[in-house]
């Protein structure tokens, strides 16, 4: 694997890990910041999918659509429907949640689901890329 490609994948993974770490710290210390926690969880999934797309040499547009990113993977490594369901669930917490006009107030159950979804995507994508080879 080309070193430039490996570095780009690692950069996406580092960003994903930072989002996950941020979500967990905020969840522990400021659990009432539900919108911020769920936003970071959505970002984890987005960045993991982008890392995997780079890994598979699949180009992607600038997007926050998790469904689109999953669709782009369908030719080389289609994900089961349950991942689309999880992506749809967490997609509500994408960038628009950061603005007053797109404000959606997540419930505590949304926060817990978002963290679980982020962890699930992390586990499957890291397994698929077998990070020991990077």
Order of helices and strands: HHHHH
Number of β-strand runs: 0
| CATH-assigned homologous superfamily | Nucleotidyltransferases  domain 2
What is the CATH top level name? Mainly Alpha
CATH architecture: Up-down Bundle
Structural class: mainly alpha
Oligomer: single chain
CATH overall fold name: Four Helix Bundle (Hemerythrin (Met), subunit A)
**Overall radius of gyration:** 15 Å
Poorly predicted sequence stretches spanning 5 or more consecutive residues: none
Portion in beta strands? under 5%
Q: The biggest beta sheet, please?
A: none
Mean pLDDT: 92
Describe the structure.
This protein has 134 residues and is mostly helical. It has one domain: Four Helix Bundle (Hemerythrin (Met), subunit A) (Up-down Bundle). It has five helices and no strands. The protein is globular. It starts with a helix and ends in a 5-residue tail after the last helix. The mean pLDDT is 92.
């Amino acid at each position: 694997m080309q070193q430039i490609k490996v570095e780009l994948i690692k950069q996406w993974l580092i960003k994903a890990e930072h989002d996950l770490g941020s979500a967990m710290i905020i969840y522990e210390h400021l659990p009432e910041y539900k919108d911020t926690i769920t936003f970071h969880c959505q970002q984890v999934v987005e960045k993991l999918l982008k890392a995997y797309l780079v890994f598979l040499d699949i180009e992607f547009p600038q997007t926050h659509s998790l469904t689109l990113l999953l669709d782009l993977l369908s030719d080389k490594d289609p994900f089961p429907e349950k991942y689309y369901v999880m992506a749809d669930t967490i997609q509500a917490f994408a960038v628009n949640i950061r603005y007053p006009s797109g404000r959606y107030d997540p419930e505590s159950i949304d926060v817990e689901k978002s963290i679980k979804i982020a962890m699930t995507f992390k586990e499957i994508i890291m397994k698929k890329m077998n990070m020991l080879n990077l």
